[in-house]
Design brief:
By secondary structure, the protein is mainly β. It has a domain at 166-326: YVTN repeat-like/Quinoprotein amine dehydrogenase (Methylamine Dehydrogenase, Chain H, 7 Propeller). The protein is built from one helix and 30 strands. The chain has one helix at 314-320, and strands spanning 9-12, 20-22, 28-30, 39-44, 50-55, 60-64, 70-74, 81-87, 92-97, 101-105, 112-117, 129-132, 138-142, 147-151, 158-164, 168-171, 177-181, 185-190, 196-201, 215-219, 222-229, 232-237, 243-245, 251-257, 262-267, 270-275, 280-285, 291-294, 300-304, 308-313. Strand 8 (81-87) and strand 9 form a beta hairpin. The longest helix has 7 residues, at 314-320. The N and C termini lie close together (10 Å).
Length: 326
Amino acid sequence: MPELPSPTKVFQDEKQFNAVTLGRGNTFSIREAPPDFKLGSFGISPDGKWVFMAWGSGRLEVLDTETGKRIAQYKPMPGPVFEADYNDQTKQLLVTSEHGLIRFVDPHSGKMLREIHTEIGKYKYDIQKVIVARDGSWLAYVNQENGKILDLKSEPPKALADLRDASDLALTSDGSALWLMNREIIVGLKVGSWKQISSAPLLDKVRPDGTPSLAVASAGQNAVAFIPSQSGLLRYDLETMNGTKVNQNPTYWVALDAANNGILVNELHALSLYSSDGSVRCQWKQHPSRELKVNESGEWLGSLDFSKVELWSVKSLSVSCSERKP
């Protein structure tokens, strides 16, 4: 397999921390980097125009993807920022933090516009995933214990549905169905009524040390879901709920390549691009990363390092890679 090409864009702190101090007699000491130099999380706006970098001190930077220039900088939360995402319909930045806290803030000033305290469960798990309706009318969050769908038209937001111990969420391309999964099953809900459409058990367990992830793509007139498992990539036809294992390689993470209706997969020894029918289109050597993300439009693949964010153009990756079979 070829190496992953050099990233299209690299973002890092303008300030540099010197960890090494020279002393007498050819001695030196190494200091731990302070929180403001430790990159905790990152995000990419749905349209790919902004990159969000959250540092250990709670400082959040909003950067222009094209120029790399900082648009804004502020501390929107009392604690660490876990996720930052932009809702184009409401023109607000959604930020999540510890203890189930969700805030909507102005992306330019950092001013808080709304705050939601989600219910904390017995195990005090933090929020794993948040999806906001395209019209801003509802919000769904999961935390592997007591996730909910909340009505954002009410204040405080009232619960519309219980998502229980789900760990990840995905909307179909037409926004008509919300699919969720935990470590045992995949379940579909009809958006609006929130009634269950169907469900199916997972063909294999997900890694016990990882957070299960889910990606939903279109396949003709139907939708298909992809889920990583300990023994291979799982694919479900969401019309029939028939599940198949499309490879025999342990998989760790999946994300939708919306621009090409494909699936990016982080698996043992490889970062791969699959078609919605489950066939392999491209493979590269696995890229070391603390976290991988793809923005909603499918324009950018992002990787989180200790002090920087790397972005690859998904279109360029798809065009340049040679098609290979595992």
